[in-house]
Design a protein that fits this description.
Blueprint lengths: L8 H19 L4 E2 L1 H8 L3 H9 L11 E2 H11 L6 E6 L3 H11 L5 E8 L8 E2 L2 E5 L3 H8 L3 E4 L3 H13 L4 E4 L12 E4 L2 H9 L6 H8 L1
Parallel strand pairs: 3-4, 3-7, 4-6, 7-8, 8-9
Antiparallel strand pairs: 1-2, 5-6
Helix pairs in contact: 1-4, 2-3
Bound molecules: nicotinamide-adenine-dinucleotide.
Nicotinamide-adenine-dinucleotide binds next to helix 5, strand 4 and helix 7.
């Protein structure tokens, strides 16, 4: 396997996509899959898939394809999902509530295991099996549960403050939903999730019917 820092972000981001599809094949008891089938279903180039997977070893067998269970095991190992990964979420508002609730039903080794909020009436609230904790308990819970990933779902003007607290408590990676660019030490990996900009950029791909609409109005 090549060393981690040589694997491009694009490849790392495709692996969970492969994994989700392979899990579905496994549920349907389909034992093998070819890179052509994977490519067709995932709308990716089969050569790209073979190249991605070859980064981590020689998994495929000519004429047979990939053993689904084996490939799942390998990808889970590469993504470090073969171990329990606890995640902390800060901001038990509308979005934080929805994410924690959704996550509670996942049968996965990677889970939100602690939810925090600074607003007293939120503290003690139950979100599925999780109890919203006060910010004062964040550091000790993170250390107790060995949490290394945090999710930020607080308002934009509080996000940097929360990121600083998370980093000071030992968090190494953050999924940030707040619409701000966070400043953190270089060893902290930040991924931004942005529903609004994703949606806005979709507008660019619309067929340009502006003139017809204007014509229709005349
Ligand atoms: N990226 C996306 O796709 C997307 C979608 C929706 C909302 N958002 C963003 O997510 C964030 C949350 O949105 P929402 O609608 O859930 O807001 P919300 O107001 O319902 O929830 C925010 C929560 O954060 C808590 N909070 C505020 N400051 C805090 C602090 N310093 N420490 C701990 N908790 C704190 C509040 O008490 C509240 O419970 C916002 O920044 C919003 O812009 C992003």
């Amino acid at each position: 396997m090549k060393s981690d820092n040589k694997i491009s972000e694009a490849v790392v981001r495709r692996l969970p996509v492969y994994l989700r599809f392979l899990n579905d094949l496994q549920k349907r008891e389909i034992p093998t899959v070819s890179s052509q089938e994977l490519g067709q279903k995932l709308d990716l180039n089969p050569a790209q898939i073979r190249k991605d997977l070859a980064y981590f070893g020689d998994f495929g067998r000519k004429g047979i394809g990939y053993d689904v269970s084996y490939l799942i095991e390998k990808i889970r190992h590469i993504l470090k999902l073969d171990q329990q990964i606890n995640v902390a979420l800060v901001g038990a508002g509308n979005l934080g509530h929805a994410l924690s609730n959704y996550n509670a039903y996942l049968k996965d080794t990677m889970k939100i295991t602690a939810v925090f909020d600074s607003f007293a009436p939120k503290v003690g609230q139950q979100i599925h099996s999780l109890t919203v904790q006060p910010m004062e308990e964040l550091e000790s819970t993170i250390r107790k549960q060995g949490i290394r990933i945090g999710i930020i779902t607080v308002p934009d003007f509080e996000a940097q403050n929360v990121a600083d607290i998370l980093v000071a408590s030992g968090i190494e990676a953050i999924l940030n939903f707040a619409p701000v660019i966070l400043k953190t030490p270089s060893y902290v990996r930040i991924h931004a999730a942005d529903f609004t900009t994703d949606l806005q950029s979709l507008a660019y791909y619309l067929q340009d019917g502006r003139e017809e609409i204007e014509d229709g109005k005349q």
